[in-house]
Design a protein that fits this description.
The chain has six helices and six strands. It is an alpha+beta fold.
Length: about 160
């Protein structure tokens, strides 16, 4: 079971009061070749820059293989579960998409990444539906430029 549901929930008003603030930073997550290979199999993208370390070292400026951008993006889920609070009365939350998503720097195999989350909007669209907008960046350990930056939208539903 995902640990997010074990956190003590906070009132909706407390969540909305967090708008404009950095909510938190996740732990580091390893992006190793095994994770990249598994992801390549799942999405059927076996481009050599992802799965062939020798060729990637020889034929690219990366020096090794790099993670798929969408793999890095998919790690936002676990990172957000570590950081974002649960709101009292929540029945479910769903991804609503991104208003902006940019892949800024490659994540080389063996790197560790973490997410930095700032709540930028928390607006009730209906009495039982909250639109949550979070500005997130995924940092690469030891690098100054992030792997990605995004404005992530979620819908949170209440009973």
């Amino acid at each position: 079971m995902n640990e997010v549901w074990k956190k003590p929930p906070i009132p909706l008003a407390a969540y909305q009061a967090m708008v404009g603030q950095e909510v938190g930073v996740s732990s580091w997550h390893l992006v190793d070749q095994k994770r990249i290979d598994v992801y390549a199999d799942v999405i059927e993208d076996h481009q050599f820059i992802h799965i062939d370390p020798e060729r990637a070292a020889r034929e690219t400026d990366f020096g090794t293989t790099v993670a798929h951008g969408f793999l890095t993006m998919s790690l936002l889920n676990i990172m957000s579960y570590e950081v974002m609070p649960v709101i009292e009365g929540t029945t479910m939350g769903v991804n609503y998409g991104f208003d902006r998503l940019r892949f800024l720097s490659p994540v080389r195999s063996g790197s560790r990444v973490r997410g930095r989350f700032t709540l930028t909007e928390a607006r009730l669209r209906k009495p039982t539906e909250l639109l949550s907008r979070t500005s997130v960046s995924v940092e690469i350990e030891g690098e100054s430029k992030p792997a990605l930056a995004a404005d992530w939208l979620g819908l949170i539903y209440f009973a």
